[in-house]
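Changelog note: in this version the structure field was regenerated for every chain. One regenerated record is shown below for reference.
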Amino acid sequence: MMPRHGTLRGVGLTALGAVVVAGSFVALGLRPDGIASYYRDTLTPAGFAIWFCGFVAATLAPPAIAVLCWFGAMRFRYGWLLHILLVPATYAAVRGSIALMLAVASEPDSDGPTRWATDPAVMLMVVCPIVYFLILGSTKLREHRASANDC
């Protein structure tokens, strides 16, 4: 179980919240009358499997990358580098997954039905780094205040 106090508990709860939000976005994007049924009917089974993997990767990549960067930064000597790489890594993962979805669906851009399926992923691509850096700032501020009180 998680400790009662501390940064690890906050990060764990944040990660859990991000997974719940991302899971709800996946569920909203895949409701039976939604986009998934359209692609299931128009693509081959293999094409739909690839499209679906791109959809899941695009939606779950932002919170997963944020959690990996957070815990990696705690173990890595130059942890600040992982904090800096969060935004480009998240952008590359989401845009790459969307490009895969578009290629499989033979759509020239995301103005078609794929846009509705990728809106949650794009929203998470923006929200996750903002939440990440707010938590990072509050954690560093708390550490700074604690070290100032020790003097």
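Spot check on this record: DSSP finds five helices and no strands in the chain. The chain has one domain: 19-144.
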